[in-house]
Design goal:
Blueprint: H1 8-23, H2 33-38, H3 41-47, H4 50-60, H5 63-71, H6 74-78, H7 82-91, H8 95-108, E1 111-112, H9 114-118, H10 125-138, H11 146-153, H12 161-172, E2 178-179, H13 183-192
Antiparallel strand pairs: 1-2
Helix pairs in contact: 4-8, 5-8, 8-10
Length: 195
């Protein structure tokens, strides 16, 4: 397992963003791209190690904030490859990190990383069971709804549908990734997994 050490600069930046987002009136709560740009965070994010930044936010901030933050940062995800995502999961220390990770990658990137979690010897069995339970209980939330497409089309939180589609295409064109399945197929797949 490759350990990711989160530096102080990343911790401070992530903390500052999360705290400041609660103090300002944000167009799309809990965070949006407008807030990130207005406060000069884009350049700061670009200047730090992207894996440290991803891990820090998956690990230390609530899932709703984390997922929405990552929606607002497509340029960050442009850097991410298959090995990066495996490395991230192997560094998670709590179930909520996995929940945010599954929701973001399945729903927004449209990639299926369940096998990479379930069959990874470097991930604790407890986390694997928690991931399965979480997914069964939130299956409907792993797919974009019509109103969410409208939010992207109307650019409500600073990212438009074209930016999302370009990001999805990046992962779809990478053969290392398994594409997200329709709901009924994912359900059947999860039923067959033994942990």
């Amino acid at each position: 397992m490759n350990k990711i050490s989160i530096g102080n600069e990343v911790k401070e930046l992530s903390s500052q963003m999360a705290i400041n987002s609660t103090k300002e009136v944000i167009q799309y709560f809990p965070i949006d791209r407008f807030f990130i740009e207005k406060n000069g965070f884009i350049e700061k994010i670009r200047s730090v190690n992207y894996l440290e930044f991803l891990l820090c936010n998956f690990e230390n901030v609530n899932p709703t904030y984390t997922v929405q933050l990552f929606i607002c940062l497509p340029e960050l995800w442009e850097k991410v490859n298959y090995e990066d995502l495996i490395k991230l999961t192997e560094n998670f220390t709590n179930s909520f990190s996995f929940y945010s990770f599954i929701e973001f990658t399945y729903k927004y990137l449209e990639i299926d990383l369940f096998d990479e979690i379930i069959y990874n010897k470097n991930i604790e069995e407890k986390f694997k069971r928690d991931c399965l339970s979480f997914t069964f209980n939130t299956l409907d939330f792993l797919y974009l709804e019509d109103y969410e497409y409208i939010e992207f089309k109307e650019n409500l939180f600073g990212i438009n549908i074209e930016q999302l589609r370009r990001l999805q295409l990046k992962f779809k064109n990478d053969n290392e990734f398994t594409k997200a399945k329709p709901k009924n197929e994912l359900y059947k797949k999860l039923l067959l997994i033994q942990v």
